[in-house]
Specification:
CATH class: Alpha Beta
Radius of gyration: 13 Å
Helix content: 25-40%
Number of helices: 2
CATH architecture: 2-Layer Sandwich
Number of strands: 9
Order of helices and strands: EEHEEEEEHEE
């Protein structure tokens, strides 16, 4: 298993800043989808993405997923980490956007969230 690459791109494209998840297998993206499902179903309130063995961060960037009363998107925290903060209902939508990538390899990409100042992109080959 080659861990999912997660990186923060502050600049370099008109779409920046963005967080990109790339280089994943269907099993790895399935684990990510499961976390989104648990956030939606109420099984968990927070998920530390970088505590997972199937995640490989680039530089010092860290990301956790959590529940909010409104869709805040990716929010930089005081400690330098990013929280991806969505309502429970919205995590169901995110799970649905991830599903095609779990069923088979996809060379395409999918914006998972563009509600905050920083967008989140799922792209197996890293392009968009």
């Amino acid at each position: 298993m080659n861990p999912v690459k997660v990186e923060f791109l502050r600049e370099g494209s008109e779409d920046c800043p963005l967080v990109r998840l790339s280089e994943f297998t269907p099993d790895e993206i399935g684990a990510f989808r499961d976390a989104c499902r648990k956030l939606h179903d109420g099984g968990i309130d927070r998920f530390d993405l970088f505590a997972q063995p199937w995640i490989r961060g680039v530089s010092d960037f860290r990301l956790w997923l959590g529940i909010a009363t409104w869709d805040r998107g990716l929010v930089e925290q005081a400690d330098g980490t990013f929280g991806w903060l969505l309502r429970r209902e919205t995590w169901d939508n995110v799970e649905g956007l991830i599903e095609p990538f779990q069923r088979s390899y996809s060379g395409g990409n999918q914006w998972l969230d563009q509600s905050g100042e920083t967008a989140l992109l799922l792209s197996n080959d890293g392009t968009w």
